[in-house]
Design a protein that fits this description.
Two copies of one chain form a homodimer. Chain A is of the alpha+beta class. The first copy, chain A, is 38% helix and 16% strand. Chain A is built from eleven helices and eleven strands. Chain A has a seven-stranded mixed beta sheet with strand order 2-3-4-10-5-6-7, with helices on both faces. In chain A, strands 1-11 form a two-stranded antiparallel sheet. In chain A, strands 8-9 form a two-stranded antiparallel ribbon. The longest helix of chain A has 19 residues.
């Protein structure tokens, strides 16, 4: 993001702005707090693509009545350790935390909880949900499908979302291990940056509309597709495709949401699929009591040992050795809590536009 | 495997031979049947590396008393939906199916079951376990750690196993989707084949002992390591590493087994780690009642639709389009049920050696 001038904002300022924006559309205050928290955590952790940079899209969808600001979540079916939840077409930023809460409550009662959710929308960063579980000494999982962007291996069209998997494990003295990964080889945001910078991209990130691998990022927007993690057959592209399929089925087939290419679009400019096979998009949450498996402190001590052992791995020349999953996000958070959230000009312009349309005050640092 | 002459055996013949071999060491008959079933399914499904090709290794370990032929599995701790199991240093081929059974029973009682296992050994193909769950209309998961072979991204030494993840989903008229993938970029067996054929391997499969990527397969045996799925930072190698870490922690830290580089060796020739941080290796099993989420037949109908939709994906030129996970294994099974299991000469020699040492009859097709 160094290619574009930016302004910096305290996290609390952005959080308060998005809370007011959600409330402007009739989202109840408690729900608006939840939703703005998910966005704030994303910005704090350096995942710029999923924070207030997306607020204008939520704003558009709420403005057009495409998202229900006051959903009544309904448990459609359940067992002591599982549930299917209908999100009533609410904000994923509200449905997600509430469905995750159901998973966590079940885990506290019977050892684990697993919740598949239909009729929901984009839920922010997957990593948010296991972070909430950590606060309760639970191992949390989160997955979601997303609008189609990725080709299955040997396919020449978009059939799956970037379908992320997140899970986290707490340490005692060490910070937690936080895993949050899309099942595509590269993030769509990287293609956008390459287009803006007019640079080529590595082979293995995308295919063009005929299905051939290409280094031209513009081929993506001209009918191309992202490749799954592993990229090609030789390097395990069938594995990334299988992981994405797993996420798709757990989130959507199990809950009754729109799977695969039929996921409804998140943003207005995106193509609406010709077929609907369920309701909205889908999420999948899991939570497991650590204490149900072994003493929680013993688990945390072993995680500390795991982290320290992996930090001591002999490094590849030219690197400082392996990171622990979650390191980059934690470093971003430390820096941003102190120095604020940097936003590029197009995002600032989006927020100013929302401010103009709603009357909710928003000013850049320079004017505050 | 076309580079070496082979003999062909009926699956039942190999199954019976391995059952007798396990019983020769005092493994109870029911357990010997379980263990030989896991090997037979692997051979039927075309995963040659994990079938009777491994019998001599089990034979060695049992001969030396390194594996307990009569383990008493113990549930160390449990909640209604989770359990920690101590495998009493039994064959993974026996401990695995029994721990998986506990997960499935819990799923039938409270919706889901999750079992982390310590003090166990190599459990065969991960895909075996979700196949058992399919028979009971459950969604089954299986993971295991294995002896270290894989470097974490930016690490120049072996720290993790190939740590597979398996999960399966039943169709109604279509065959099930069966996912079974190692979290490394390539299988170790492919390196061995390249060494035998004196061929180069693609960049992105392994690093040499200094941590540099290399096309020389012999660099693997000279202190090199496999790369995680994604291979390098640009193509998501940090994701494969994170998935492998997830498997390692769920299987080992949660159960009290030896995680990461401390996994004990499976075969005699392998290096014994200098430190022990738990008992044996670890597995993790999960099972979820489909009916707990939605009507089982409706789920299966949607899976049929999913499969048919993905089969209609526009193909990449030169391919027949995407496969459905499990296709190659199912095709192998159809063929091998009819035509038998092909074994290469070194494997036949291993079985003949076991026969000589135990007195259990084994002859090649030509003599039968």
């Amino acid at each position: 993001m160094t290619d574009i001038a930016h302004h910096t904002f305290p996290s609390a300022y952005l959080r308060e702005f998005s809370r007011q924006v959600f409330m402007h559309f009739g989202v109840p205050e408690a729900d608006a707090r939840l939703a703005s928290d998910v966005l704030a955590v994303s910005d704090l952790r350096g995942i710029d693509s999923h924070g207030v940079a997306r607020l204008h899209t939520y704003f558009d969808m709420l403005s057009l009545g495409r998202i229900n600001p006051q959903p009544n979540l309904r448990v459609v079916r359940q067992t002591p350790s599982t549930a299917t939840v209908d999100g009533d077409n609410g904000l994923g930023l509200v449905v997600g935390p509430k469905a995750n809460e159901i998973a966590m409550e079940k885990a506290e009662r019977v050892g684990s909880g697993w919740v598949s959710v239909c009729n929901t929308n984009h839920f922010g960063i997957a990593g948010y949900y296991p972070l909430k579980a950590l606060e309760r000494n639970l191992i949390g999982w989160a997955m979601t499908n997303t609008t189609k962007l990725v080709a299955p291996l040997w396919g020449a069209e978009r059939m799956l979302g970037t379908n992320p998997i997140a899970i986290a494990f707490p340490g005692l003295e060490e910070p937690p291990i936080v895993i949050d990964l899309a099942t595509s080889a590269a993030a769509y945001g990287k293609i956008e940056i390459a287009i803006r910078q007019q640079k080529e991209i590595p082979l293995g990130w995308i295919i063009d509309q005929r299905g051939e691998t290409t280094t031209q990022p513009t081929d993506m927007v001209n009918g191309g597709a992202l490749l799954p993690l592993g990229s090609d057959r030789e390097h395990g592209g069938h594995k990334g495709y299988a992981l994405s399929a797993m996420v798709d089925i757990l989130c959507c087939v199990l809950s009754g949401a729109n799977w695969g290419p039929f996921a409804p679009p998140f943003a207005l400019r995106q193509h609406v699929p010709e077929r609907s096979v369920g309701k909205g998009i889908g999420h999948f949450f899991g939570a497991m009591q650590i204490e149900g498996f072994l003493d929680t402190n013993e688990f945390k001590r072993q995680i500390d040992d795991w982290i320290r052992t992996f930090r001591q791995t002999k490094p590849v020349p030219g690197t400082r050795g392996p990171l622990i999953p979650g390191d980059p996000e934690r470093e971003a958070e430390t820096h941003r809590r102190q120095h604020g959230i940097p936003l590029i000009q197009p995002v600032v312009n989006d927020l100013l536009d929302i401010s103009r349309q709603t009357g909710i005050p928003f000013t850049t640092t320079d004017d505050r």
